[in-house]
Write a structure and sequence with these properties.
CATH superfamily of one domain: Head domain of nucleotide exchange factor GrpE
Order of helices and strands: HHHHHEEEEEE
Largest sheet: 3 strands, antiparallel
CATH architecture of one domain: Roll
Mean pLDDT: 85
Shape: elongated
CATH class of one domain: Mainly Beta
Number of strands: 6
Strand content: 15-25%
CATH topology of one domain: Nucleotide Exchange Factor Grpe, Chain A, domain 2
């Protein structure tokens, strides 16, 4: 009796699957193929963009990763220059010992600046240049009619760049007087 109940409640036989019409399959396959090709090309382009962006980020990290240390070391270069500049001329010329000491300090300064240059850290040549707020920090104006208005006439503290970025702006005095020059 149990077997009879199973057969009574058995589901009806499934209808055989309809075979797709071969004339409709080709356009559908072409459309699917075009969509997959588009997705593949987009994925490849995204991967190429990611590779380029990653290469740039790695290069930037190599170049700019030492910025904080370099900025701190600029004080060392400034102090070497101040040491040389603050020795009176008379003392320089009167003592062989002082002259030798100054030569050693200047040699150390040049060596240090050369080492900075190896890491793409360069001094901003500000004196005589047109004031650029991206490279210079103006501390004061100097009345001077002999140079065009907005020209750097005094450098208080040298500025430096690292790669294409400003590591420290040059602190400068800017002329105020003659009309602006026509040439940049």
């Amino acid at each position: 009796m149990r077997d009879a109940k199973l057969t009574d409640h058995a589901e009806p036989a499934a209808a055989p699957e309809a075979q797709p019409d071969p004339s409709n399959a080709a356009p559908n396959l072409e459309r699917d193929n075009a969509e997959l090709k588009d997705k593949l090309l987009r994925a490849l382009a995204d991967m190429e963009n990611l590779r380029r962006r990653t290469e740039k980020e790695v290069a930037d990290a190599r170049l700019y990763g030492t910025s904080a240390l370099a900025r701190d070391m600029l004080g060392f270069a400034d102090n070497l220059r101040r040491a040389v500049d603050n020795i009176p001329r008379e003392l320089r010329e009167s003592s062989e010992t002082v002259r030798t000491l100054l030569e050693g300090i200047e040699l150390t300064e040049r060596d240090f600046l050369t080492r900075l240059a190896r890491h793409k850290i360069k001094k901003i040549e500000a004196l005589g240049a047109k004031f650029d707020p991206h490279l210079h920090e103006s501390l004061f104006e100097v009345p001077d009619d002999s140079v065009p208005n907005g020209t750097v006439v005094k450098v208080v503290e040298d500025g430096y760049t690292i790669g294409e970025r400003v590591l420290r702006p040059a602190k400068v005095g800017v002329s105020r007087g003659a009309a602006k020059s026509a040439t940049p």
